[in-house]
Each structure stands twice: as structure tokens, then as C-alpha cells.
UniProtKB/TrEMBL annotation:
PANTHER family: AROMATASE, CYTOCHROME P450 FAMILY 4. It is an enzyme of class 1 (oxidoreductase). Its EC number is 1.14.14.14. InterPro entries: Cyt_P450, Cyt_P450_CS, Cyt_P450_E_grp-I, Cyt_P450_sf, Cytochrome_P450_Monoox. It comes from the Eukaryota. It comes from Rotaria sordida. This is aromatase. Gene3D superfamilies: Cytochrome P450. One of its GO terms (cellular component) is membrane.
């Protein structure tokens, strides 16, 4: 038997349907609703303690939101894109949401009118748990604080001198981690390649932005710090978007511990730095702290975000490229020959194709700051925007073999083609909120892969799948669901 509260709720819904039977007028494709329920109905449903009842009501009256909760933003976005096309309107958590894989519309949102879309949408409490609420630059929804921290710390530090330094630091960091290769072995000559690559990029980041000479942090500590970053990513995915009512107490506690652990890592790393170093990023932060221009929490979050951004995304892309090479002998031989001749075309295109075929950031999420209009499409203030890079980067009209890993797809594509009216290849985003470290990422990936390929061969091992078969989790970052094991042999 249904209780009185449930019957009353169903009765109210029925009355509402009768009063507003035909309410929704869609201006472009998307799921059709016979009724638009106001926000407070969504809130009422979320507060229902009976999980089965709550989920069933969400499935009926808020199906898009339920799909996003059950899946992830990229997977749900791909579902609606494949069903309705390259511009789709959905209702996400009772907010109008536009999913875009149309290159011109995406370019308008990100670049041509990018200043109106520098906000990202997310769960306010979740961002507070993560330390990202109004702090740092990745998900800071306080526009003034975001601009200040991005310009004065991140952009200021990522200057031409640092990019020049990155060339030899990337080489030295790779040499240093290679000296301890046995620490990454799970058996003779078979290594955890993701752990190995993340250790290299972590070492580079610590030197360039925190002034820690290579070797300051032991290999054991490096592996521990890298694992802390990986666990923080899991917390990030857990807290970022789903409604608070869907948090599980045990999971929440576990992820809060991961967040605290990485914050402890930040403090531990800070204690190792030489107070007399001339590292621009950390010194700018400390000067701003001393002058009360930022808080200690803001400073720590900026350091934390530099560590996670500098360590993970480049490593995953390099893993995908090594995986592609391991099953393509002709491509590997061509790359090896070019590198010996000091030619880098295949290297550059190979990394670009890895970013296209499996983008580490499968979607770009934005939120409209003010009302806007694009090609007669009205975009109201606070409308969520999801740019579906996975779909956009596989369109055969722009990429000759869009569904295959083939360097021909990106031979004519630049990483920052801002002079074109329509940008179709956006692995680092574009516009005022594009990846601030994109040129550093390019340099360090090229240096690391060159060093590794000239000296070692890599083959899949211990059940690691091919690039095409590799299982990845599509969330805020597209990451392998299982460790990548590879046989590494000296040439």
C-alpha cells in the first residue's frame, strides 16, 4: 500500500499535468516533455528518503537528470548527441542545458563570445568539499578571483623562460625516473606505465613551479604523491555534479580522506622547498599571501591544482600514444627514424592524434553568465553548456578517418587555430578559459616520448588492451579503468 504522502504527491502531479498538459516548446532537437515541472518539484523528489521511489519519480519526470546521475556527463552527453544531433537541448537538474558538437557553435561559446562562458556548473557543496569553491582556477565560480589567480600566478609563471627551461627539465626528469625503473616493475621488464609516466610529469611540475630540484623527493614519496593525485581525481568525479542527496556516507568519507591527503601532500611539499629559490609561481603566491591579496587556502588550492593538472593529463595522452605505437610497427619505425634525423612531424602528429582519438577531457562544461543569442537560438542566463569533444573530434567531414587512430586525421590541424572562423580540433579548449598550460604540455610530452622511444621499445603486457579496446572511464577526465602494463626493453 502507498502511504498518504506518496498518494498526495501523485495527486498533485496529476493535477499539474491536467493544468499544463502542453507546456514545452523546443527550439531545437532533444527529448520531448509533455510537462515542465517547476524547480521545487525536483527538489521535493530529491528529498524523498525512499531511494526506489525517488529514482522511479526521477526516471518519469526528470529522465535526463537521472541518466546523468546513473552514467557520467560525457556518456550521457554522447547518448543524447547520437540520438538527436550536434545541437541538443536537455533538462539537467532542472536547468536548461545545451549539448554541442557543432564546431561553429562550440567556437562561439568558447572563443568568439568566450567571456560570457567562463563559468562552469557544478554542485556547490561538492566544490566546497574539493576546495574548489571560489578558489583556484579550474572550477572557481567567483569570476574576479578566477581572473586574478589565473593571470597573476598561472599565466605569469608560464612564460617563455619557463617553456625554455621545460625542455631540459623534462629530459632530466625522465632520466631521473628511468634510473629507478625497477621501482615501477610488477615483474621483470614489465612496468606500470601510467605510474611511471605520472612520476615523470610530477617531477617536472615540482621543479618548474615549486622550485624543487630533481631528486629532492624520493621515488617512494613520488609514487605516494602521485597516488594521492589519482585518488583526488576520483573524489573530484564523485563530488562535482551529482545532487547531494545521492552522496553515500561511506563513499563521501572515503573521498574526503583523499582530499585531505592531497592537501597534506601540498603542505609536505612546501616544507621541502628552498626559501631562497627564485621560482616565479610559488614566490608570486607567497608574496600575494604576505600582502594579504590571497588567503592561505587559495594559495594551497592553486598549488594543488597545478600538481593535478601538471601530472595527470599529459601522462594519460602519452600512455595512449605508446599504446598505439605498440601495435603499429611501421609507425614506430617511422617515428624512430625521424627522431634519429631530428625530425618531429610524426611525433607531433602522433600526440595530436592521441588527444583527438581519446581526449583526456571528453567534454568542456560551461555556464552562461548573461543572456545571449547564437543564430537565433536564445541562451538564457545560467544555461548549462556541454561541448562534446568526443563526438566533434570524430566527425568524418573534418577528420578523414574519424573513428580510426590514424595520423592523417590531424596532419592539417593546429593545436590553437584561433584565426579560423571554425575550430574543429580543440584538445586544450580555446578562448579565455583554454588550458593555460597547453604549450608546456606539448613541450614535455614531445621531450619525454622522444627520450623513451630513442632508447626503449614498448609492448602491451599482462592483458593490457589495444588502444581501440582499452576500457576508459568517461568522466571529467577520460582515464583507463585498469593499470596499463607494458613490456619495456632497451634498444
Amino acid at each position: 500500500m502507498l502511504d498518504a504522502t506518496t498518494l498526495l504527491f501523485i495527486f498533485i502531479i496529476i493535477i499539474y499535468i491536467l493544468l499544463r498538459y502542453s507546456t514545452e516548446k523546443k527550439i531545437f532537437p532533444g527529448p520531448k516533455h509533455f510537462i515542465n515541472l517547476p524547480n521545487y518539484f525536483f527538489d521535493i523528489v530529491l528529498k524523498i528518503s525512499n531511494k526506489n521511489l525517488r529514482n522511479n519519480l526521477l526516471k518519469v519526470f526528470f529522465p535526463e537528470s537521472f541518466r546523468y546521475i546513473e552514467l557520467t556527463v560525457p556518456l550521457a552527453s554522447q547518448y543524447y548527441t547520437s540520438k538527436y544531433g550536434d545541437i541538443v537541448q536537455v533538462n539537467l537538474f532542472n536547468q536548461p542545458t545545451i549539448i554541442i558538437s557543432n564546431p561553429d557553435f562550440a567556437d562561439y561559446i568558447l572563443r568568439r563570445n568566450g567571456k560570457n562562458y567562463t563559468l562552469r556548473f557544478g554542485n556547490s557543496l561538492g566544490l566546497e568539499y574539493l576546495g574548489m569553491k571560489n578558489k583556484g582556477i579550474i572550477w572557481n565560480r567567483n569570476i574576479q578571483r578566477w581572473k586574478y589567480q589565473r593571470l597573476n600566478f598561472f599565466q605569469k609563471a608560464l612564460n617563455n623562460k619557463l617553456l625554455d627551461d621545460a625542455k631540459y627539465i623534462s629530459n632530466d626528469a625522465t632520466d631521473y625516473i628511468l634510473k629507478y625503473l625497477e621501482k615501477y616493475e610488477i615483474q621483470i621488464n614489465i612496468i606500470d606505465i601510467m605510474d611511471f609516466l605520472r612520476s615523470i610529469t610530477f617531477t617536472i611540475t615540482c621543479h618548474l613551479f615549486l622550485g624543487l630540484p630533481i631528486g629532492t623527493i624520493s621515488i617512494e614519496k613520488t609514487k605516494y604523491y602521485v597516488n594521492s593525485i589519482v585518488e583526488y581525481f576520483k573524489a573530484w568525479e564523485y563530488f562535482l555534479l551529482k545532487p547531494t542527496q545521492f552522496y553515500d556516507e561511506n563513499e563521501t568519507n572515503k573521498h574526503q580522506k583523499s582530499i585531505k591527503q592531497l592537501n597534506d601532500v601540498v603542505n609536505e611539499i612546501l616544507s621541502k622547498r628552498d626559501m631562497n629559490n627564485n621560482c616565479l609561481f610559488i614566490n608570486s603566491l607567497l608574496n600575494a599571501l604576505n600582502n594579504q591579496q590571497i588567503t592561505k587556502e587559495e594559495m594551497n588550492q592553486c598549488i594543488l591544482e597545478m600538481l593535478i593538472a601538471g601530472t595527470d593529463t599529459s601522462s594519460v595522452t602519452m600512455f595512449y600514444f605508446l599504446l598505439a605505437l605498440s601495435d603499429r610497427n611501421e609507425l614506430e619505425e617511422k617515428l624512430l627514424k625521424e627522431l634519429k634525423d631530428n625530425s618531429y612531424q610524426t611525433l607531433t602528429n602522433g600526440l595530436k592524434e592521441s588527444m583527438r582519438f581519446k581526449p583526456v577531457g571528453p567534454v568542456i562544461m560551461r555556464c552562461a553568465i548573461n543572456d545571449d543569442i547564437y543564430n537565433n537560438i536564445q541562451i538564457k542566463k545560467e544555461t548549462n553548456i556541454i561541448v562534446n569533444l568526443v563526438d566533434m573530434h570524430r566527425k568524418n567531414e573534418y577528420f578523414l578517418l574519424g573513428n580510426q587512430f590514424n595520423l592523417i586525421n590531424v596532419e592539417d590541424k593546429d593545436l590553437s587555430n584561433t584565426n579560423n572562423e571554425k575550430n574543429v580540433f580543440l584538445p586544450f579548449g580555446i578562448g579565455p578559459k583554454e588550458c593555460v598550460g597547453r604549450w608546456l604540455a606539448k613541450i614535455e610530452m614531445e621531450i619525454i616520448i622522444e627520450k623513451l622511444i630513442l632508447n626503449y621499445s614498448f609492448k602491451r603486457a599482462n592483458g593490457t588492451k589495444t588502444l581501440e579496446e582499452l576500457q576508459t572511464r568517461w568522466d571529467i577526465a577520460q582515464q583507463p579503468t585498469h593499470p596499463g602494463y607494458m613490456l619495456i626493453q632497451k634498444r
